[in-house]
Design goal:
By secondary structure, the chain is α+β, with helices and mostly antiparallel strands. Helix 2 packs across helix 3 and helix 2 packs parallel to helix 4. The N and C termini lie far apart (58 Å). The chain has four helices and six strands; from the N terminus they run H-E-E-E-E-E-E-H-H-H. The strands form two sheets. It has a three-stranded antiparallel sheet with strand order 1-4-5, with helices on one face. Strands 2-3-6 form a three-stranded antiparallel sheet, with no helix packed on it.
């Protein structure tokens, strides 16, 4: 059975083996894009281990599965105004609903009016 290494012992051992470990500071987000989904790590701890000319990145944190990023939807000002008037909301709320509904006017209005009754 192995005994636990203190951080100091681990640093010494790493130096002897030629491994340099550094923490990347200021990392806000890491995305891993796979064929069927995207994992997003928000505010993770990221360590870089340099060994034999190669960099190994270690990501520590809990991933969330990102929503699929489809084609960017173009939303006209007329659509924003129409949804805002029909749903009796601000233009910003109308714009957000249209983005969520991927430009579908009826769906955006339904999203806004059904959430008001709750």
């Amino acid at each position: 059975m192995f005994r636990r290494l203190s951080p100091r012992e681990l640093r010494r051992l790493s130096k002897r083996l030629g491994i340099n470990i550094e923490e990347l500071k200021g990392v806000r987000e890491v995305r891993i894009i796979m064929e069927d989904r995207t994992l997003v790590f928000t505010n993770p701890t990221v360590n870089v281990m340099r060994l034999g000319g190669e960099d190994v990145y270690q990501i520590i944190g809990k991933p969330e599965e990102a929503k699929e990023e489809g084609e960017e939807v173009e939303i006209s000002e007329e659509d924003v105004e129409l949804v805002a008037v029909q749903a009796n909301v601000t233009r910003e709320e109308a714009r957000r609903a249209l983005l969520e509904a991927k430009g579908d006017l009826a769906k955006a209005i339904l999203l806004l009016t059904s959430s008001k009754g709750k």
